[in-house]
Here is the input.
Amino acid sequence: MTTELAVRIGDEVELDILRVANGGFCIARYEGKVVFVRHCLPGERVVAEITDITAKFFRADAIEILSPSKDRVEPPCQYSMQCGGCDWQHATLPAQRELKSEVIREQLGHLGKVEEVNGKPLAEFQVEPLSANETGLHWRTRNRYASIGDFGVGMRMPRSHSVVEISECLIAVEGSVALAESAIHLGQPEIETAMSSTGQHVVVDGRGGPWLDERVGDRNWRIHASSFWQVHKDAPAVLVDTVRKFAALQPGQSVLDLYSGSALFAASLCADVGERGSVVAVESAIDAVRDARRSCSDLPQIDLVTADVNKWLSANKDEKFDVVVLDPPRAGAGAAVIEKVSQIAKYAIVYVACDPSSLARDTALLAAEGWSLRKLRGFDAFPMTSHVECVAAFTRAQ
Here is the structure.
């Protein structure tokens, strides 16, 4: 005989927080049932308000901290308990990186069946800051705000369409909110702003513009303001450097860059294969490929293709490339793409991932195709949030 729990949305319960979960939550249990809790840290005892009830679990928000963690700090942002933009403002930056490390270790171990990486046990893997002077604030170059009538802008609350009016956003580059407020008169439901590495700061218009000039290393890109670009100001250079090192391409070799966007990686890899080598970049977004063509016109060894990645791989299944680089959407590449990539790559696969669970699932798929995860770096490219960027290198299993 089972007894249903008499718990309703809005009830307050005391919980012991056990460990971190993917997505900005921590895990607790109430009467044996899993509870995903926001605004808390592992090891804390809290009073939490139940916000959602499903057949398998509850969701809750910590509203009082009875036993605080040593890693707890006062959130720097006044909207941290209301806005859905950040998850970990109540933790020190080193603690945030340890939480993200734990998520990656758990996902790769559980879903990917990985036991060792970088020549060490998976348990020793650690997420790194993007730069030595990272403060966790004012790093986000691309931002989106909800318009509130004709008087303000705001951010959405977590898992909600409700909007919190804001006068500042501490993770956005300075001036972003004021810039958005200056565009309220346009009457758009959402206002996007973008800042380039060269200092341009613009409101994105209805056509995806205006143009931005980006610079990474010794190369320049001219892209639409709406085109995908890494949002942390330091991320493009760090990720390009890591991908190039993991790919370890030699002059005359070939590389396939999938989900290539504006050719950030593809253009940079041209320097490694030289004019005798070849780089094929495949991207489905037409504007992104147009941006890439404009920015890469001086690179004769690059072939920029507008196509769905899976369809292109199916049509070119007999091709072979020394190295395949892929930077798929948050959901990952998936079984169909992974199967084809594993056949088309000769020596190495370099995978850029913004979601640990997607990386872990695709790692398991690659393992089934005979590839092993050898190298992995995790970067705290989204401080104060639960998101993390990884670069993984796979080689054929011995």
